[in-house]
Amino acid sequence: MVMSPPKPSEGSWTAHYPELGTGPISYEDSISPEFYELEREAIFKRAWLNVGRVEQLPRKGSYFTKDLAVARTSVVVVRDLNDEIRAFHNICRHRGNKLVWTDFPREEVAGSCRQFVCKYHGWKYDLDGSCAFVQQEREFFDLDRADYGLVPVHCEVWEGFVFVNLAEDPESGLVEFLGPMITSLAGYPFDQLTERFFYRAEVGSNWKLFIDAFQEFYHAPVLHARQSPAAVSQPLLEAGFEGAFYKIDGVHRLVTTHGRRGSSMPPEALKPIEPLTRSGLFGPWDGPDLTGTTEGLNPGRVAPWGLDSFQIWPNFVILIWENGWYLTYHYWPTSVNTHRFEGNLYFPASKSARERIAHELAAVTFKEYALQDGNTLEATQLMLESRVIDTFPLNDQEILCRHLHQVAAQWVDDYLRSGNGGGKR
Amino acid sequence: MTVMLPAEFADLEPFAAKWCLPTERERFAARLASSMDEMQAFYDAMFPRAAAAIDYCDRYPLDDMPDDVERLMQLVYSLIMVSFPVEVWRQPHIPDSGAAYLDLVLEPEP
Prior knowledge:
The structure holds two protein chains of two kinds. Chain A has two domains: about 15-40 and about 180-425, Alpha-Beta Complex (Naphthalene 1,2-dioxygenase Alpha Subunit, Chain A, domain 1); about 50-170, Rieske [2Fe-2S] iron-sulphur domain (Rieske Iron-sulfur Protein, 3-layer Sandwich), CATH 2.102.10.10. Chain A contains nine helices and 17 strands. Chain A has helices spanning about 15, 35-45, 175-185, 205-215, 220-225, 230-240, 275, 355-385, 400-415, and strands spanning about 50-55, 60-70, 75-80, 85-90, 110, 115, 125, 130-135, 150-160, 160-165, 195-205, 245-250, 250-260, 305-310, 315-320, 325-335, 340-345. In chain A, the strands form three sheets. Chain A has a seven-stranded antiparallel sheet with strand order 1-10-9-4-3-2-5. In chain A, a hairpin with a 2-residue loop joins strand 12 and strand 13 (about 250-260). The longest helix of chain A is centred in the last third of the chain and has 32 residues, at about 355-385. Chain A is globular, with a radius of gyration of 23 Å. Chain B is mainly alpha-helical. Chain B has one domain. Helix content of chain B is about 55%, strand content about 5%. In chain B, helix 2 (about 25-30) crosses helix 4 (about 65-90). Chain B is globular and about 40 Å long. Chains A and B meet through strand 11, helix 7 and helix 8 of A and helix 3, helix 4 and strand 1 of B. Strand 11 (about 195-205) of chain A pairs antiparallel with strand 1 of chain B.
């Protein structure tokens, strides 16, 4: 029997946050080219954006580039000789060439160096961004190298997650931006979960629509029905799915679900490969219990706890499982109706072949699900663009979708009301 | 014929040339390029031997595995890769996934 989790005293999660309303909502924000142009400035050049983790910069001189098509720039993130992590716009001060790239100008790269050297005319920059060398400097006119350092981008690190902010003068620091719900995850051993599977796809939908797909589980018993044995999927489909706990903290969101380890599941609920590898969609059955490492996990004190999916504004998700591993998702817009999706799975470094094999099953299963989700999104985008229907109902299990679209509208509104964007309309 | 696997797993040699593949990208491509009969035959031969194969691989450190043991581990990975088509989908590709793709850009070694 599937029990319904208790709802707040107001009768629904949505009513618990009255500013959300309960009416049908519009997805004009996901099909309007004009709204997308505003989002570039109002959201992606104002919010803190996660671009990676410190483990991607293991040594002094390690760097990686991150292309931010939505902001029409690329940044290079580097660990300098003082172990400080810095970010710069990835552009040479001389003739505007992309500074760090290999073979393909539109591909992101990572590596290690002592200085950045432009491929075009050989200008060199130290890792702190200062211009160190100008080819045939005497040929220039009154050129002072001190005036030609790389253009810095605000860069801060929280718990090993590297964020940048493209604003000239960010409205808040990173910790203030993340707020208490997210920063209370401090202490979780992210730095020890270093075995990484990194997936990437170009998806034919607006970035917010894919976030919507992964911030409600109402779809799971239906869209993914065939992934579980019928003995399990049929009762699930009849009962439907209810999140155990929802929380909204400013611009960020959380959904928590119940869960149980595969080792406690009845055999008829399992595919044969799962007991063989002691793993599944929900991860390795024998993963470590890390719940005591931080206050911020499972703030609803749900039991038995399965996972927390922290939806960090605007385009970043940290999803932490009970059995000691986590996922991140990034949704990088490339146009109004396309985006690049990135999914990372992070496990404790395998100490044995058995552990590594359990991780492999979780990773392969993740892909089976994600591909179904991604393709469905393109179908949604196509028909929203017909504009045959302009408002759509959302139920209480879709509260986080309601919140995301509301925050996007608010940030665009704030941007317009503060006197920006006048020339763009 | 070149021997690819440890002697204890000689019965799996007929599958080694096709399914001992080092990356997920290659294993996923092999899955999409295979018939259900091919995958079923590999699954039927490999599944009953998989617990022994995992035990065998587990005796070696991950960072210092002999080549034949690493190939045996790749055979376990390929069993995982074909398990969804065989156990669930009854077809090589994921239903409703159409032209969508999801590339694994970085994965642990081995």
